[in-house]
Amino acid sequence: MPERNIEFGKYGARGIKGHEAVARQLDDLAGYITTPVTARRGLIARLHYLTRTDHARTAARAAGLTVTDRTLRAWLDGRRSPSKANLERIEQAYRSVRRHNVARYLLARLNREGRGTRVEIHPLNQSQVDRPRQRVVEFRTLNVRHWDRIIAAWAAGDDRELDEAWVDQVIDLGSQWGQYEYVTNIGFAA
User: Fold this and answer.
1) Closest CA to 37 of 73, 80, 72, 84
2) Per residue in 10-57, pLDDT tens?
3) Which residues touch 117 (CB under 8 Å, ≥6 apart)?
4) What is the pTM of this model?
5) SS3 2
6) How far, rounded to the nearest angstrom, does the alpha carbon of residue 33 sit from its chain's CA centroid?
7) Which end of the chain is more exposed for a tag (fewer CB within 10 A), N or C?
8) Number of H helices and number of E strands within the chain?
9) How many whole angstroms separate alpha carbon 110 and alpha carbon 16?
């Protein structure tokens, strides 16, 4: 069984870790607000999302947005603007709360009552690798039936656990799973 890659990209191969591609796809499925937080409209939308209910405010405070209610009202009214550091905290808190809110929905959609979801794995890019060092790595599909650990790690923002959970699923590819540790893209729908 192959081990994990130690010197990825030594000969010019390009790609990202599989769990990062999965997290990126899950983020796309989460449906974040597309307007950037630096624009007034994006800031207001995120603040409304984080302050609409008491539950949302508690989750935002737990996610790192620790400002007073007076400051929040001033930001919402447009009397003051948040600093760059506070904009980053607002974005991180928004993403964290949004992930937590949609995790249960995504889990149900991806598990599909035990049937799972078909995942397309696009191999790494070897166009910059010298011809003798290139290996044959084809496009693969895999049916993932157990998304529980993957979604829980994604919602918590735990990269290490997400990597472990993803590798546990990719091992189903057999002895070739190590060839798909780094990929160009991973696609699936919910």
Assistant:
1) 84
2) 888 899 999 999 999 999 999 999 999 999 999 999 999 999 988 889
3) 109, 110, 111, 143, 144, 147, 188, 189, 190
4) 0.87
5) coil
6) 15
7) N
8) 7, 4
9) 22
